[in-house]
Amino acid sequence: MTVARGRLVVFEGPEGAGKTTQLRHLCDWLFARQLPFTGVREPGGTALGNEIRRMLLEPGRVINARAEALLFMASRAQLIAEVVKPALERGELVLADRFFLSTYAYQVVGRGLPFDDVRAANRLATAGLVPDLTILLTLPAAVRDARVVARGGADRIESAGHWFHELVERAFKDCAAPAWQAAHPECGPIAAVNASGTEQEVLERVLTVMTGAIPDLFPVRNAAHA
Ligand code: Z5A
Question: What's the predicted TM-score (pTM) here?
Answer without folding.
Answer: 0.95
